[in-house]
């Protein structure tokens, strides 16, 4: 058996050689970047990388080594690209995203749209964000709200994006991809659901419950203890309250906020019936204008991954390498492409930060359809 110290000394010598060669290679990559600055050629050349990986892995003496060589060179070439992005950005070759920097957002005299009807949780979020005295109105669907800000009928829309118990509101993620609207703010509000019935109804009268599917989901355990009740999905919790009032039937109840009980003259039959006491929903404030301020500190983006193994790992490396703190990642199926996904990432930063620009430039080259959804 060889002595450990002796073996480690040998490894140390080889590692120094690897480091020297790595640095030599990176200097050459800087030369390649210069060539690309002058010619406008793209940094990422997949064909060249694939052919290099094929040649180099073929040199591996065992399957284990072939695998390791592939992983090692994927990393080395990824670093070489990142160095080139840095040099291109430093050379002023950064195509600014189609966002306008504004001093501040104009909330005075703003017209704000929300989905649902009077008393909807979206309206509570709206009041929390913009204050009580606002010019606001409601529309029937989230798509209608997106259309309203796109057409300029409204300046801002308030849309739920994520609930702490039920997860994301996937329809609004998809609408953010479809429309070129822009997130300019967010508001989290506590969601306490109540069971509401007619003023003369008792809990024992109830046979039918109406609410939004998300609210029904968030009260899953409570509803499980009343399995005999028929559950009905409606577009909005406040619409459910309105329906119970209008139908005037003692056996019908709605799951909605207790604020809607006041608005529609209903009785609170049970309070705080959601599974999670801390139940909260995050709403996004969306504008038809693609704007951000220098104070904005969070960025939401989405992109499609290249459909191959390890691609997500490489996409996320742009955040890690640039020292960017990621807060959230989601995936949604890409319409018309089974088993392919679009990733949604929220991270800290401002579009003016060099680190952010570097990461975005890398992602733009190495993913499909990178879209900045907002910086707020
Ligand atoms: C260095 C280059 O840029 C990128 C990095 C590569 C590498 O490090 O080997 C290969 C291809 C490109 O994606 C190049 O184009 O040759």
UniProtKB/TrEMBL annotation:
GO terms for cellular component: cytoplasm. It is an enzyme of class 4 (lyase). Residues 300-376 form the ACT domain. Keywords: Amino-acid biosynthesis, Aromatic amino acid biosynthesis, Cytoplasm, Isomerase, Lyase, Multifunctional enzyme, Phenylalanine biosynthesis. Catalyzes the Claisen rearrangement of chorismate to prephenate and the decarboxylation/dehydration of prephenate to phenylpyruvate. It is found in: Cytoplasm. The keyword GTP-binding does not apply. GO terms for molecular function: chorismate mutase activity; prephenate dehydratase activity. GO terms for biological process: chorismate metabolic process; L-phenylalanine biosynthetic process. Its main location: cytoplasm. Residues 1-88 form the Chorismate mutase domain. Transmembrane segments: none annotated. It catalyses: chorismate = prephenate; prephenate + H(+) = 3-phenylpyruvate + CO2 + H2O. NCBIfam families: PRK11898.1. The record marks 281 as: Essential for prephenate dehydratase activity. This is Bifunctional chorismate mutase/prephenate dehydratase. Its EC number is 4.2.1.51. Residues 111-288 form the Prephenate dehydratase domain. It comes from Roseburia intestinalis. It comes from the Bacteria. Pathway: Metabolic intermediate biosynthesis; prephenate biosynthesis; prephenate from chorismate: step 1/1; Amino-acid biosynthesis; L-phenylalanine biosynthesis; phenylpyruvate from prephenate: step 1/1.
